[in-house]
Design goal:
Layout (H helix, E strand, L loop, with lengths): L5 E5 L4 H9 L4 E5 L10 H8 L6 E5 L6 H11 L3 E5 L12 E6 L4 H7 L7 E7 L4 H8 L4 E4 L6 H5 L4 E5 L12 H9 L4
Parallel strand pairs: 1-2, 1-8, 2-3, 3-4, 4-5, 5-6, 6-7, 7-8
Length: 194
């Protein structure tokens, strides 16, 4: 399946989500890599998952990282294609070779852009929340490719924004192999070329 926009699905905590998303043509899969955070996936569990899907790029969701040693451990244990974080974690980002996804969490655009100055060449995407004003998203899109974080169904208004794609969230499974994909499937089907 080919999707019309870039899609990242984060908060992947189970193999069912990873395989489903890979099969649906999702571009990026995100895994929480910070111990003691909700949805944390250990390096051992991640390696087990990794052997069962191919295609999507790997995003290490590093919200809450507190030092550069942890960041280096993430790179070694998960071998991500992207690191996802907020401006709060940028001081611990000293790996110039990795692409970044940085969450814009409501601070004024100029202030947000100032925080990205030291890493601006590494920023691959900015994540914008769907409740942000369209003018804010449009201004961000003038500087960086934007992925819109969706928490509800896709609508026509979302498709008129100057964004590169969408960031969705995986969910928990009732038991291994038993899971509903209704919310993910709805968005992915709307973005499908088929």
């Amino acid at each position: 399946m080919k999707l019309l926009r870039i899609v990242k699905v984060g908060n992947i905590t189970n193999l069912s989500d990873a395989r489903y998303c890979a099969g649906m043509g999702v571009d990026m899969l995100g895994f929480c890599v910070i111990e003691n955070k909700p949805g944390y996936v250990s390096p051992a569990a991640f390696q087990e998952f990794r052997g069962w899907f191919s295609g999507p790029s790997i995003v290490a969701e590093a919200y809450g990282v507190i030092n550069t040693q942890t960041m280096h451990g993430i790179m070694q244990n998960y071998l991500p294609d992207f690191i996802e974080l907020s401006v709060d974690e940028l001081p611990f980002m000293d790996i110039p070779s990795i692409a970044l996804m940085v969450a814009a969490r409501g601070m004024p655009v100029n202030q947000f852009l100032d925080k990205l100055t030291a890493v601006h060449t590494q920023v691959a995407y900015v994540l914008a929340e769907e409740n942000m004003p369209a003018s804010y998203i449009e201004e961000l899109a003038g500087y960086y490719p934007v992925l819109l974080q969706l928490n509800r169904p896709l609508n026509r208004q979302h498709l008129t924004l100057p964004i590169k794609g969408f960031a969705l969230a995986g969910g928990t499974e009732e038991k291994p192999g038993l899971k509903s994909y209704d919310s993910l499937a709805g968005v992915l089907e709307q973005l499908s070329e088929d």
